[in-house]
Design a protein that fits this description.
This protein is of the alpha/beta class. It has one domain: L-arginine/glycine Amidinotransferase, Chain A (5-stranded Propeller). Helix content is 21%, strand content 26%. Strands 2-1-15 form a three-stranded mixed sheet, with helices on both faces. It is globular and about 40 Å long.
Length: 254
């Protein structure tokens, strides 16, 4: 069975952290409706969705991806880079403890899950304003017994690694080549985003389906032209909070 952990949108989401976008008003009710449809899409794919209640004092807490890295063998609870987000980990750790042994990234290391891309036994960590080299060292220590290789990569002009590149098939990546170098991923194939849609490299691969924002039709067309099945979702309000489709769930085999 595949399980997804999600969390309802905080009523304080308009106080969210922003790194690269100008602040715009987020309509809480529209955002909530869009998030509910996102969860519905996950359920339509046969995923068991564990939807945690909203955290009123944690504006970014809908973005559960940043709080944990869930692998087959273990779940690593992160230490988010933004101070306001550090308390988000507690409810997620409690929810994951049912399914996995837990380990933790400890300060002064900082790590957002959005900076972690897992491709088989290869794990890439993007060095960003939220994730640092100390986190890579701790990840190596935690995961070396399980045979994982951890590699740090540089990103440009974006919040997280998965703003720049995500998996859309076992050996294919959707990538914004202006934000990250293809050469960092030897042996992989690529679908380049449309240059007019710089934020469109964030796609959520679930089995053979790709959940993808309706905001980026040109890049969607490129994915479909490569023979991939796309399920469109409207994330317009959460996009104002620098959120994407991977950000709103932790998906794993249970």
């Amino acid at each position: 069975m595949i399980t997804a952990i999600t969390r309802k949108i905080s009523p304080s989401i308009n106080k969210c952290e922003l790194a690269h976008l100008e602040r715009q008003p987020i309509d809480y009710q529209i955002a909530t409706n869009q998030h509910e449809k996102y969860e519905k899409v996950l359920r339509s794919l046969g995923i068991k969705v564990i939807s945690l209640p909203a955290e009123g004092n944690l504006p970014d807490s809908v973005f559960v991806e940043d709080t944990a890295i869930v692998l087959d063998e273990i779940a690593i609870i992160t230490n988010p880079g933004a101070v306001s987000r550090k308390p988000e980990i507690f409810a997620i750790a409690n929810a994951l403890s049912t399914f996995r042994k837990l380990d933790y990234i400890m300060a002064p290391a900082s790590l957002d899950g959005g900076d972690v891309l897992v491709i088989g036994k290869n794990i890439y960590i993007g060095f960003s304003s939220r994730s640092n080299h100390l986190a890579l060292m701790q990840m190596q220590s935690i995961l070396s017994p399980y045979g994982y290789t951890i590699q740090g990569v540089e990103i440009n002009d974006c919040l997280h690694l998965k703003s720049a590149v995500t998996r859309v098939a076992e050996k294919t990546l959707l990538i914004n080549p202006d934000w990250i170098d293809k050469k960092l991923f030897p042996g992989m194939g690529f679908i380049e985003i449309d240059g007019s849609e710089p934020f469109s490299a964030n796609a959520l691969l679930v089995e053979q389906s790709i959940i993808f924002p309706v905001a980026f039709p040109k890049t969607c067309g490129r994915i479909q032209a490569a023979g991939r099945a796309v399920i469109p979702v409207d994330m317009s309000e959460l996009e104002k909070a620098e959120g994407g489709v991977t950000c709103c769930s932790l998906i794993f085999r249970s």
